[in-house]
Amino acid sequence: MGAVRLRRREVSMLWTQDLEDLATARALIDAGRYYASVFFFQSRPQRKP
Fold this sequence. Notes:
By secondary structure, the protein is an all-alpha fold. Helices cover 86% and strands 0% of the residues. The protein has 2 helices and no strands. The mean pLDDT is 85.
């Protein structure tokens, strides 16, 4: 059961970071920094839960 809790916590932390990265990408798009927004937008698929 401990492994499941650790996995759940890890996924929760990744999800929180994903939401932050999405917010950052949106802010960069609004600021016209398209090249930088791509970095934050594409970083999620590279992370593994």
